[in-house]
Write a structure and sequence with these properties.
The complex is a heterodimer of chains A (216) and B (250). Chain A has 216 residues and is mostly helical. Chain A has seven helices and no strands. Chain B is an alpha+beta fold and 250 residues long. Chain B has two domains: 106 residues, Beta-grasp domain (Ubiquitin-like (UB roll)); 136 residues, Alpha-helical ferredoxin (Fumarate Reductase Iron-sulfur Protein, Chain B, domain 2), CATH 1.10.1060.10. A five-stranded mixed sheet of chain B has the order 2-1-5-3-4. A two-stranded antiparallel ribbon of chain B has the order 6-7. Chain B is elongated, with a radius of gyration of 21 Å. The model of chain B has no long low-confidence stretch (mean pLDDT 95). The chains are: A mainly alpha (216), B alpha+beta (250).
Chain lengths: 216, 250
């Protein structure tokens, strides 16, 4: 327990970047990702259109690596370092915020494992050329569905709780009231993202288009 | 009628490098006892429950009214001041252990001097004189006084460090108490003039960035200091200071 005599700012900057990268671009990407995949609930055709449009964005490799791969790798591996630095004591002291702290650690690990597998299967094995029919076929596997549901819930919780933590860590929410408000905002994000993700997965699993009412 | 008694279990260790053992004492109950009285009873008659002779338990204590911070220890697993841990309110047998986040001296006594060292490193004082009398400082608004008074009640007991999941052998987080003191001295109109060096000190390894908001600290603070607000407030100060000094230089 000591603050170092040397005033090296490296660890401060890395920690701040870890916190920031979780919101922008990773959190923003998660929102975009759920949005694009929600087209699976509209129609197979619109899903395929969105998918091919995303595959045709200009500077794709450059955009993917700066907006996705590098921030994700940094957030994950520096996150593992932060995980190693903490030691949960929630069993002896089961307070709400202590549970959230512990769950943030656990969901981070789950989301990391899920995203690694998800990227491997969809981006590298599937070459990012996803079409509705392929995704739907893979969603017939109950193990796939289970892993997706767990991964989605973990990532959504991690983002929602992370937004609350971000508000505290960046001095945005200082008073107890403001921190509570940020907590409710984070909870709303976690719940709505989870529900959206679950709807997409189940929609694919059952091949249903509940949002397809406007399709001519 | 037999005397009413209760059991106290104490984790004992003669020296930091010696093995740990637990001892059980059966003490005579009187109303309004606190944990310090228990330890004094044992010192008067250091015989364990099964009649073996032992030695008085080493512990730190001073004011006995929760304003010095010295008697912090784990009472039934919770970090708190032994002087305000009342026997009537505690689950029996009462379990006493030393704080685990500080170097052990003996029995229930730990060396909490790292807190003082960190107060020095973060320059938690207000320079009131130079080589000559620099005169009275600016006045403080009643609002600032009110917040400052609450923060000034910190007794450096170390409970907030003990309960923090980010203070352990892998991480050297300075802890909520120190951060809260930085907030106190940075809000003082004269102390404000040295806000930069204090914030610089909190930017290094073990600084404020290690806090991940488990927010346990505020639950065990015997003085009810709004530590989570202090952490967020100083987080904002450090960030603004970092950006300002990067963009505009010192």
């Amino acid at each position: 327990m000591s603050v170092a005599a040397s005033h090296s700012r490296t660890s401060y900057i890395l920690d701040k970047l870890q916190s920031l990268s979780g919101v922008i671009p990773i959190g923003a990407f998660l929102a975009e990702h759920f949005w694009s995949n929600s087209y699976a609930l509209v129609s197979a055709k619109s899903y395929d259109n969105v998918s091919s449009e995303l595959q045709l964005i200009p500077w794709r490799i450059f955009v993917e690596s700066t907006v996705l791969w590098l921030p994700l790798l940094f957030h994950s591996f520096y996150g593992l370092y932060i995980w190693w630095m903490g030691k949960s004591n929630v069993l002896g002291h089961p307070w709400m915020s202590n549970w959230l702290f512990t769950l943030q650690r656990v969901t981070g690990i789950i989301a990391f494992a899920f995203i690694a597998w998800h990227v491997y299967t969809e981006r590298f094995v599937g070459r990012g050329m996803t079409a509705y029919a392929d995704v739907q076929a893979s969603m017939m596997n109950p193990w796939f569905v289970t892993f997706y549901l767990i991964g989605i819930a973990a990532a959504s919780f991690h983002l929602g709780n992370g937004l609350w933590n971000f508000a505290c860590k960046w001095g945005i929410a200082v008073s107890v009231k403001a921190q509570r408000a940020a907590g409710w905002f984070g909870a709303a994000v976690a719940v709505s993202f989870t529900l959206m993700g679950v709807a997409i997965v189940l929609g694919l699993h059952y091949g249903k288009f509940p949002l397809g009412g406007y399709v001519q | 009628m037999p005397e009413k008694t209760f059991i106290v279990r104490i984790k004992r260790q003669q020296r930091p490098d010696e093995s740990v053992h637990w001892e059980e004492y059966e003490l005579r109950y009187r109303p309004y006892m606190n944990v310090i009285i228990c330890l004094r009873d044992i010192a008067e008659h250091p015989f364990t429950r099964d009649g073996k002779e032992s030695s008085p338990v080493t512990y730190d204590a001073n004011c006995l009214e929760e304003i010095c911070g010295a008697c912090a220890m784990l009472v039934n697993g919770q970090p708190r001041q032994a002087c305000t841990a009342l026997v009537d309110e505690l689950e029996k047998p009462i379990r006493l252990e030393p704080l685990t986040k500080f170097p052990l001296v003996r029995d229930l006594q730990v060396d909490r001097s790292s807190m003082f060292e960190n107060l020095k490193r973060t320059k938690c004082w207000i320079p009131i004189d130079g080589t000559y009398d620099i005169g009275p400082g600016p006045r403080m608004s009643p609002e600032t006084q009110e917040v400052g008074y609450t923060l000034s009640q910190c007794i450096s007991c170390g409970n907030c460090l003990e309960i923090c999941p980010k203070v352990n052998e892998n991480s050297h987080f300075v802890g909520a108490a120190i951060v809260s003191q930085v907030r106190l001295f940075n809000m003082h109109p004269t102390g404000k003039m040295h806000a930069g060096p204090r914030l610089d000190a909190l930017m290094g390894p073990g600084g404020i960035e290690d806090c991940d908001n488990a927010q346990n600290c505020v639950k065990v603070c015997p003085k009810g200091i709004p530590l989570t607000e202090s952490l967020a407030a100083v987080n904002g100060q450090v960030l603004r200071h970092a950006v300002k000094s990067f963009v505009f230089g010192k």
